Amino acid sequence: MPDEYVKVLFELEKEDEDYPPVEYERLWARPLGEGLFEIDNIPFFVRGISVGDVVAAQQGKGEVVFSELVRASGNSTLRIIVFDESHVEEVRRQIQALGCSTELNVSKMLGVDVPPRIDLQAVREWLMEKQSSGTLEFEDACIRHEGLA
C-alpha cells in the first residue's frame, strides 16, 4: 500500500451566489489501491464527507477526481465561523478539549472533526451557547453519529 498522499478534487455546488466561495475543494487522501482513497483532512466546503471516509476517485482533468462515497468513517464534520479573530484560538482549544480536532481556513473559519467516540451533542450544545452569545456561527457539514444523522 503506498504511503504517499494525494489530493482528491471535489466539485462544489453553489448553495447561493456567494457560497461556497470556491468551485472546488481538494482534500488530502491516502491511496488504498483500486481507485479508493481514505480522506485525511477536514473539509471546509465539501458536504457529506468526513475524515476517514473511503471514497472512489479516478484520474480526470489531470487530477484525481471524486466519484462516490464508498464507506463512511462514522466521524462527523462541523464548520465554524468565529466573528472576532481574537477568539479563534480559544474556540479551537475548547473544541479540542471536547475531544475533536480542528483545521483553520483563512483567519476565522474552522473545520471540526468529531470522532464517533465523542459526544457530538455535547459539542453542539457548547457551540449553540457560543452562537447564542454572538461569538460564532456553526453548521453541520456531515453528521454520522448514531441518532443524530
Q: SSE layout and pairings?
A:
Layout: E1 6-11, E2 24-33, E3 36-39, E4 54-60, E5 63-71, E6 76-82, H1 88-97, E7 101-105, E8 109-114, H2 120-132, E9 136-142
Organism: Archangium minus
Pfam family, one: DUF4265
Protein name: DUF4265 domain-containing protein
Q: Which residue ranges are poorly predicted, with pLDDT under 50 across at least 5 consecutive positions?
A: none
Strand content: 35-45%
> What's the CATH H-level superfamily name of the largest domain?
Ribosomal protein S10
Radius of gyration: 16 Å
Number of domains: 2
- Top-tier CATH class of the largest domain: Alpha Beta
Shape: globular
Rounded average pLDDT? 92
According to DSSP, the number of beta strands is 9
